[in-house]
# Entry
Amino acid sequence: MKVTMKGQADTKPALLDLESIRQQFPLLSRAVHGHPLVYLDNAATTQKPVSVIESVDRYYREQNANVHRAAHFLSACTTHVFEAARETTRHFINARFAEEIIWTRGATEAINLVANSWGRSLKAGDEIILSRLEHHANIVPWQLLAEVTGATIRVVELDDAGNLDTQQFQQLLSDKTRLVAIAHTSNAIGTITPVKELIELAHHAGALVLVDGSQAVAHQKVDVQALGADFYVFSGHKVYGPTGIGVLYGRRELLENMPPWQGGGEMIERVSFSGTRFNSLPFKFEAGTPNIAGAIGLGKALEFLAGIDFAAVNAHESQLRKLVEEELIQINGICLIGLAEQKAPVVSFISSEHHNQDIGLILDQQGIAVRTGHHCAMPLMESLNLNGTVRASFALYNTIDEARVFVDAMEKLHHSPLYNAHPEANSDKGDESGSTRTVITEATELPEIFRHQAPDLVTIAERLNGLSGWQERYRQIMLLGKELSVLSGEWKSDDARLHGCESSVWLHYHYDDETMRLYFIADSDARVIRGLIAIVLAVFSGKTPEEIEGEDIEDWFRELDLFNHLSPSRGNGLKAIVREIQAIAHRYR
# Structure
């Protein structure tokens, strides 16, 4: 199946000087787990060119000072480059005036600013239109606003391919519609929405439009005047700039009539206890000391991007996406999620053979960085009846060779006998007769299901120590998971499910009154996590509450050379399991 973009001519693509571009990104040359890094998590954050890194370093080394107020030399220098970055941003998105560019901590804060300032004008009965594609950052602020004002949120749905239903959008528009808040591009499935058309329709109905451009600005030329956007937001770190800096563009006449959101220094002109007069734009919305280094770095990032032909960027990134989509769809068990007519360089998919988190962990061991989970788009995943996807997202510095390394790894993963045996096929120890609650019983007799849950630590250490290659280590971890008792039926109730895990994890315990020991059983729908759970249970199960609280699981994972699996990333549920086990032990001390 060939995936193409509707209406795109089959012409020779423009070329990028990839070798020169990649030399500007130092991190791309590093190795991960002994493999060259293949970074395909660009929708989460992009890497930074030398010009951005050096500009931030130069600020702190040579001119660190606060902006605007002081009369000394360093402050004057800093103010100049700080405001020059604002002008660079204005020019990059073709805003009319520099004061239409408001510095924020990111797109999330920019949306919250609009919700908490402009949103004060809403009243009961007013309507806000969102789409099913939205990131949580463009949903939750409007939900909070609706709770306070009595406004109503209406949702535009998608077709089966992931295109926005523009016909339904027109039907939702009415004289009650005050705002449309829409993603320019979906971070989860790559859909590019027809924002110019949507803005025209919304304006015709008398509504304003906020566009979340976080995923668009790095991949296409954005002209806020040509689009007609009332507000446009994006984050610096997704467009080759620093973290902690973002942009709110707003039409000047709108911003001038909006009340300040945060109070403090810089946003005032005069303060007295009899009243305060606020500063002019853009400073009215920039309370306190801003992220000066971040703004300077973002300005350099946009200068870097402005020096590259966007047509060449689009052609190159589209080539990468299409190559990966065409190859993945040939692999049995892979299903692509999101095949909209217009797409960003995002490939989202699921596998019928492997849990998303297993795929992410196994690819990571080969130096390939992808994202797994719901991508902060739970309403979208809910409509697709999915818990999440695997997402590979490309940037202008990615290469055809990297795309092929990724595809080859996915083919090997699906063809290897090691990864193709479901754990359920290797155990008949499931028991559907137990309680549906996390606490099972405090009876003295130990239920049979708790007796043979995992190998002991000595056996595990013997099997893992001395193994150097990631394939052999993962083989042993997967085998540990296959030896773990499989829970079924009521043992996998919602009451027993732990929060804080990307995969589903269920935990039960039994306290023996006679021996004063705690026993645990656990299960997961991710195979690698099952193997790691076996290690956790070997450490904790069958010990007294005092012994459990005294155990340091991190020491064991260091000894077994598995410490990276205890990363505090929200996708890793092992720490959530350990916290719950130790909380249970604390209750029995």
